[in-house]
Please model this.
Amino acid sequence: MNAIVVGTRRSQLALTQTQWVIDRLQEMDPNLHVSLEKIVTKGDRILDVTLSKVGGKGLFVKEIEQALLEKRIDFAVHSMKDMPGEMPDGLTIGAIPIRENPHDCFISQDGRALKEMPAGAVVGTSSLRRQSQILSLRPDLVVKPIRGNLGTRLDKLKNGTFDAIVLAVAGLARMNMSYDQFDELSVKEMLPAVGQGALAIQCRADDAALIERLAQINHEETARAVQAERSFLQSFQGGCHLPVAGYAEWMNGEIQLSGLIGDPEGKQMIYGAALGTDPVQVGKKLAQELQEQGAEDLLDRVRNGLVG
Ligand SMILES: NCc1[nH]cc(CCC(=O)O)c1CC(=O)O
Model:
């Protein structure tokens, strides 16, 4: 039994990430045969609306999870960032490979850095997390929603719809798009999204043979860092559509987790950090710390604003 079916979205990034995983698996076993099954998800069909307004969890993963449960596919490669906190019964994350660059980058039309933009410049992003942090640093800029895959977003930058956009470095790096003129933002300027730069390989929980295979490309440090970030995020309802950031790094054998909750206007920021060796506990500890600083209150106000 050496033939495996992998499900993937059709976007260039999804295809590239999936191929990267297939390559790693075939390095381990040159006889492994993998075939691709392309799946269109709800998130791919919604093009013109800001995702945070659509609500709904896991717009990019639901159809894929269905295909896994129905055994039409055996595994799927997701951006960890797009994975909802909860997973249907019967599915599991079989591996989390080594993380790509977790940072965000600011790409402007004329190569200016975020600090150098003129007042009133229009920045495209549909992420409340990015919007909040951009406006906190530069309240004089204007943030407008942008949708579409990486190529579409870069086109909208080139054709002048936006003066600048913010993207994850990981997506560009995976697709070998190098921009000499991009301003890589530090975690101080722009704390990344939970799971940013990491992949999640999802499969059926009872597929022991495949799980054994996937374990070979699991990266323990990445997996535990991401676990801490997700434990933090899961303490807040509806996390992925809220202005919440979380990023964990290893420091002298311990996980150092930073987290941030902002308001969409970038006027209020609640920031904290926690240290420890148990990922789930570190996540909970940080959530607790932010709660003590009034996180739930701030998030409630954001949630109510979104409803209107
Ligand atoms: N929300 C879309 C998305 N999901 C994953 C990535 C690529 C980077 C990653 O793996 O975190 C992107 C694009 C972006 O945010 O620029």
The chain has eleven helices and 13 strands. The CA atoms of residues 170 and 197 lie 5 Å apart. The mean pLDDT is 92.
